[in-house]
Amino acid sequence: MQSSKLYVGNLSYSATTEQLTELFAGYGGVKQVNIIESRGFGFVEMSSPAEAQKAREALNGAEFQGRKLKIDEARPPRGGDRPGRDDR
User: Fold this and answer.
1) Burial 47-75 (b: 16+ CB within 10 A, else e)
2) Which CATH number fits domain 5-73: 3.40.50.1480, 3.30.70.330, 3.40.50.1820, 3.30.1330.60?
3) What is the C-alpha to C-alpha distance for residues 19 and 85, in angstroms, rounded to an integer?
4) At what angle do helices 49-59 and 17-25 cross, to 10 degrees?
């Protein structure tokens, strides 16, 4: 794994930043947690790619708040640096 940022899918809509931080902290340092409200997914950034891999292996498919988590390496945003995007 090259990145320390993970995609966390199939989250309960009631999941909180604090709960995800606590869950992932068992696998290393958690730098940042970002839950996308009302979408059922979020992102967790670990302190290192090795810690991210460890968390992914342990938590992918694990049950959290009654749902099986889908954990994967986060991908860059779609669209990238297209000309004219933010230069208005």
Assistant:
1) eeeebbbbbbeebeeeebeeeebebeeee
2) 3.30.70.330
3) 35
4) 100
Tell me how crowded residue 4 is: count the other CB atoms within 10 A of its CB: 22
Structure tokens at 84: 């004219």
* Token pair recorded at residue 87: 């230069």
pLDDT tens for 38-82 read 899 999 999 999 999 999 999 999 999 999 999 999 988 776 555
Strands 41-46 and 5-9 turn out to be antiparallel
